[in-house]
Amino acid sequence: MERTLNRVVTVIMPENTASLRHAKKTQYHLFAAMGYIKLGKWRRGSCRVKEGIRSLSFSSCQSKAVSWDHIAQSFRRENHYLDAFLGKLKKQAHLSLIERRGGLPKQGRVLKTDLFEEAMGADSLLPELSSAHGLTVGMDVAVTITHRAQANSTLPTNAHLVADVRHLPFADSSFALIISPSTLDHFPDPSDLGKSLRELARVLSPEGRLIITLDNRQNIFDPLLRLANRLKLTPYYLGRSYTIKELCTELEAAGFTVEDTTAILHNPRLVAVAIVRLARILHWPLFTRLIQQGLIAAQRFEYTRWRYFTGSFVAAKAVRKSRSLQHPSALATLSQ
Question: In total, how many domains does the chain have?
Fold first, then answer.
């Protein structure tokens, strides 16, 4: 019989000593011990990897997935992490960014690098990214988030996939457009940004585009957001934030050429959340309308020289370097 498997992974409860002994006798090798500690709503995953076989390690992915699964489970289906108005404002900012950077491709596949918005509600992007010209795929490292996004969606089942952006399960040059909306700024290890970008460069087609956003370090309210995160006042983990120069440097190092940059979603994030929540509590239509009109008007800062100080996210459009070398006239001057 021809061999078809080169690696088999099995998971056994530590107290199941009989199965452990049997596994060792059948040439299984212990390489990691996974688990979690839970106290009330607090939950922390862990994975100890045996030295010498570090190449098999998936501890970072497992811990990150456990964390995001827990976050998803902490929200009731009707309880979104973001106010509906702010969610729609965020959604519109990203859709406008995509449209102004070339829109959906006329042919080829589209990839979105996380499904948090689709799992939670008002800022969902994947339905608007679906195209009749090719498959649209959304992926997420967390099983709970992926399943919830699939349950909320009318898209085909194969449009939702559990995967780690640092180790993508796709062939080279698989996608004509990749949308990465503040996905790669949630890693505990900042070096994972480079790993992820290199994977995105690998699966992007030679004529394809990457549109990426990351938390903006230059935003004047970013220190307040970081403080709130340290005090556990934000609903999810925040990794590093980046300046537009740092984003461009990371993209160039990963094999991209940056064609355009900007900053989007020009509202003081925590302040906006607090004000909108206050308006909802007061039930004062005039106050609510003024707040919403003010936040909509603030989006005009994107077209000023202050955009990198007011935008919540830095954004870039990038292509693979091989394409930029073939078509040097297509390059655009970076925004100042």
Answer: 2
Q: Which residue has the higher pLDDT, 156 or 248?
A: 248
Q: 8 lies in a domain? A: no
Q: Could you identify the residue written with the tokens 């290199």?
A: 198
> Looking at this protein, which amino acid is placed at residue 237?
Y
Structure tokens at 192: 């994972």
Is the whole model's pTM more than 0.70, yes or no? yes
335, part of any domain: no
Look at residue 186 in the predicted model and tell me its pLDDT: 87
Taking the mean position of all CA atoms in its chain, how far away is CA 45?
Answer: 20
Is the distance from CB of 319 to CB of 208 less than 8 angstroms?
Answer: yes
Angle, CA of 135, 140 and 141, to the nearest 5°: 140
Q: How far apart are CA 251 and CA 184, in angstroms?
A: 12
The answer as to whether 3 is a domain residue is: no
Whether residue 108 is found in the same domain as residue 26 = no
The model's pLDDT over 145-200, given as tens digits with 9 standing for 90+, comes to 898 888 887 777 668 899 999 999 999 999 999 999 999 998 888 889 999 999 99
Q: Do 117 and 69 share a domain, yes or no? A: no
- Point out the domain boundary residue: 31, 54, 74: 74
Token duo for residue 148 = 């919830």
The three-state (H, E, C) secondary structure of 64-85, written as one string: HHHHHHHHHHHCCCCCCCCCHH
Inside any domain, residue 11: no
Claim to verify: residue 122 and residue 66 sit in the same structural domain: no
Q: Answer whether 34's CB lies under 8 Å from 45's CB.
A: yes
User: Residue 63: which domain range?
Assistant: 17-74
* pLDDT number for residue 1: 41
Q: Report yes or no: 160 and 150 within 8 Å, Cβ to Cβ.
A: yes
Q: Based on the number of CB atoms within 10 Å of its own CB, is 72 exposed (0-12), middle (13-18) or buried (19 or more)? A: buried
Task: Tell me if residue 204 falls in helix, strand or coil.
Answer: strand
